[in-house]
Amino acid sequence: MPPESAAIELRSINRLLVDEHGSPARYWIPGYQRGYRWNQLQVTQLLDDIWDFIQASEEKRRTSFYCLQPLVVRKLEDGSYEVVDGQQRLTTIFILLSHRDEILGLLGKQRFTIDYETRDHTFLDDIDLDRSNENVDFHHICEAWQAIEDWLGGRDRMHALKLLQHLLNDDEAGRNVKVIWYELAPTDDPVAAFTRLNVGKIPLTEAELVRALFLRRATQDDETGNLSLRIAYEWDQIEKRLQDNSVWYFLQNADLDDANRIGLVFRLAAQMKGNAVGGEDYAVFSHFSDLLSSELSAEIEWRKVKDIFMALEEWYEDRYLFHVLGFILNQTGGGLSTITELLEDSQTSSKHDFSRSLRNRVYRMMLGNDLCAISKDELGEEIANLCRTVDYANAPKVRSLLLLFNLATLLEDPRSNIRFQFDSFKRESWDIEHIRSVSDERPSRPQAQEEWLNHCLTFLRSAAGEAEQALSESIAAYLDPNNEPGNEATFEEIDGEILSFFHEAAAGPDHDLANLTLLDSRTNRGYRNAVFAVKRSVLLKNDRSGIFVPLCTRNVFLKCYSCTVGNVMFWTEQDAQDYLDAISGTLTRFFLGQGGASR
Predict the structure, then answer these.
(1) Which residues fall within 8 angstroms of residue 156, CB to CB, at 6 or more apart?
(2) 88, 184, 227, 374: which could form a disulfide with 188 (CB 3.0–4.6 Å)?
(3) Which helix (H) or strand (E) holds 452?
């Protein structure tokens, strides 16, 4: 984590030019760093990004500044700055200023200086393209110079002037380019910091930068250090809680690139203040930098952040909110705007009204209208009609229905304490799969046919009946490579025997909701279009082993929804109808707020 004594702020490129005395700022590159290594593409991309910012700024389409990544430095006794991280960007800016030195003079600016512990700085001060092959450092410096030459070559002189005007705008509140200035304390170990940032390939995350802002301001607000210690402790507690995958995947569908999950809370805090932070680099840092530079105290702003986390924690702990909000967030991807809207609704509503509004939100997501607009009888008919008409062709809708069916089932009995495993559901891939085999998806390739038959054979050999034994012998004979050609049955004949044995030869509701359930993709791929009995055996084995199986998928293969249980190895049309009725009835009761769903 960043040192608590670090100074951190947004600093314009203009402020990088001179020190506090108005003299050219001096930057020193220590020997533990490699030399300049940016290529032409990286230089061109930086110029393109700055130019895009300039164009967008003139059209008022983005924030007032363009933020580069952090520049990590440590001030030395002679007043110069040891560059711990950010050498490549700093050197590229230096080369750009050197390339247009005449414009720099027109603007009344002067370059900073760069010196090296183990390299010759004179070449950087006076770049000579003819010497580019003398060593690898000279080569990359010349490459950067040439990239700038090529980029400006297709533009007139005014483009270069506009570029440097915006780059070096000295109005701190104006439209300019900034870096996150991260200054280590003089007593901090720069080699350790460099190792962390470069050798370990673990960059400073935006959340860590925000943490440094809070701790710095807390130190100013409370010289005893108690506030800093409390914020640091509570920060770690929040981060630890969000590292719990059951909490994180309740809120989000995937992990973030940000190594610190607490960053989600800070993005929400900024969003709730009206600052859109979706596409802007370091927009959250900028938000808190402005707040903590004002008269507002670190304690007040930290309390607001904590309140957001505590609301999310309450959602997780409350079993009803956990399942209903978990469904909503799964459907919407856990976007900032959705969570922000839900947080605002929860703050302005009673728990009863908030719960009712959530059911209404889910209903709109599934059926497109409001609950209050229909009667109880109409509600049941609408849901029944949806369950009758939706099919495999609309897989996203089916997946949503089946997920909601699982969640509503868990909520139906208030005595139940089982919680849906959103982390397992989201981290694994769950497909929409057929419960019984589908007549129009018989395996056609010889290898697929052999795999399908082997699945059936494995299951049949585990059964003790004479009929199973006879069918096993037929399959084994077909698969025997020593059989003389022409003596064995065809795949179609063996396939027909199997389907007849398992009562799946007749056409059924193949692609209707009545024949669909959630199945993990690994099982789905391994046993695709297997007969009901084979899939049942595999799913129950997974369940016995503690592998996550959604409750309603388990109930299907145990035939819990069948009003009359015949042979548990077969999935009949009556089983399918009973299952469809169970889905429709459970969802109707959920939307009516009956049972455990009433709040």
Answers:
(1) none
(2) 184
(3) helix 446-462
Distance CA 52, CA 191 (A): 36
Cα 35 to Cα 135: distance, rounded to the nearest angstrom: 11
| 191 token code pair | 């080699």
Interval 530-550: pLDDT, tens = 777 777 777 778 888 888 889
Q: Note the residue count of the chain.
A: 599
Record the pTM. Answer: 0.72
Measured CA distances, 373 to 376, 388, 588 (Å): 10, 22, 15
CA distance 104 to 308: 47
Dihedral sign for Cα 296, 297, 302, 307, please.
Answer: negative
CA 247 to mean position of chain CA atoms: 14
Dist. CA 247–CA 262, nearest whole Å: 12
Residues of the chain with pLDDT under 70: 1-6, 60-64, 172-174, 198-204, 256-259, 276, 278-280, 438-444, 447-448, 451-452, 455-456, 459-460, 462-467, 483-488, 495-509, 523-529, 565-568, 595-599
Beta carbons of 71 and 85 less than 8 angstroms apart: yes
* Alpha carbon distance 17, 113 (integer Å): 8
Per-residue three-class SS string for 526-572: HCCCCCHHHHHHHHHHHHHCCCCCCHHHHHHHCCCCCCCCCCCCCCC
Tell me the one-letter amino acid at 526.
Answer: G
For residue 350, give both structure tokens: 């009673």
Residue type, 177: V
Pairing between β-strand 113-116 and β-strand 430-434 as defined by DSSP bridges: unpaired
CB 345 within 8 A of CB 315: no
Return the SS3 of 434: strand
Which residue shows structure tokens 């868990």?
410
Closest CA to 47 of 9, 104, 13, 93: 93
pLDDT at residue number 112: 96
Cβ contacts of residue 563 below 8 Å, gap of 6+? Answer: 574, 578
What pLDDT was estimated at residue 586? 96
The token pair at 15 is 């402020």
b/e string for 200-209 if b means 16 or more Cβ within 10 A? eeeebbbbbb
Distance CA(586)–CA(411), nearest Å, equals 10
Nearest C-alpha neighbor of 422 from the set 241, 245, 242, 239:
245
Query: Distance between CA 287 and CA 291 in Å, rounded?
Result: 6
Pairing, β 7-12 against β 176-184? antiparallel
User: Per DSSP, what are the bridge partners of residue 74?
Assistant: 82, 184
Pairing of strands 113-116, 176-184: unpaired
H or E segment and range at residue 192 = helix 190-194
Q: Are 514 and 386 in contact (CB under 8 A)?
A: no
* Phi and psi, residue 459, nearest 5°: -65, -45
Tokens read off for 318: 């409350």
The residue ranges of every structural domain in the chain are 7-204, 446-501
User: Reduced to 3 states, what is the DSSP secondary structure of residue 77?
Assistant: coil
Rounded Cα–Cα distance for residues 328 and 543 (Å) = 27
